[in-house]
Design goal:
Order of helices and strands: EHEHEHEHEHEEHEEEH
Shape: globular
Largest sheet: 8 strands, parallel, barrel
Helix content: 25-40%
Radius of gyration: 16 Å
Distance between the termini: 6 Å
């Protein structure tokens, strides 16, 4: 059952467009980025989110206490770590919350894929970088046996190829569903439709 995550939502219209697409997850970026939102802005956006869609917070080297506070407030349902967080950090975060923890890995070599395989996180995300929008060499992750989200350079144009070739647990897209730096409702709809069709239907 393919999972889909539309990341980097910043405007009410982004959330409303996501509601129509009905992905499994949406993402709010709290780390410094052109897609960054404040906790209060994220809370307002979360209030618009349709039931059944989970919100994931994206962090880079944030304190576990800050991450846990957003989880406890109900602004997000899961935390996605994109910095230098290690197994000790994940243990500290889990002492504060039982919410799912995702850990992102920049895949530049087979060693990076091996590190993802051994991560203590509940879910790993395999990416080309922190919001780079570029595709990495998919052959590097052939040895990853645990479920993972594929990210990096995904778009409506290559979503079907990614699903059929790699059979990932999920796809995570951000820049590939944007036009001129803003989320594009049509691209969002096309991405979700194409990915689900490739996975065998509306799963």
């Amino acid at each position: 059952m393919l999972k889909l995550k539309l990341c980097g939502l910043r405007r009410p219209c982004d959330v409303l467009a996501a509601n129509e697409c009905a992905p499994d997850y949406i993402g709010f970026v709290f780390a410094p980025s052109r897609r960054q939102v404040s906790p209060d802005a994220a809370a307002a956006l979360r209030a618009l989110l349709a039931p059944g869609i989970q919100a994931v917070g994206v962090f880079v080297d944030e304190t576990p206490e800050t991450v846990a506070a957003l989880l406890h407030r109900g602004v997000i349902d899961a935390a996605q770590l994109h910095g230098h967080e290690d197994a000790d950090y994940i243990r500290r975060l889990r002492a504060l919350t039982d919410a799912p923890v995702f850990q992102a890995f920049r895949i530049r070599s087979a060693a990076d894929a091996a590190a993802a395989q051994e991560s203590a996180a509940d879910m790993v995300l395999l990416d080309s970088g922190t919001g780079s929008g570029a595709r990495f060499d998919w052959s590097l992750i052939a040895a990853v046996r645990r479920p993972y989200f594929l990210a990096g350079g995904l778009s409506p144009e290559n979503a079907a190829e990614a699903v059929r070739r790699l059979h990932p647990y999920g796809l995570d897209v951000s820049s590939g569903i944007e036009t001129d730096g803003q989320k594009d409702a049509n691209k969002m709809k096309n991405f979700v439709r194409i990915a689900r069709d490739a996975a065998g239907g509306d799963l």
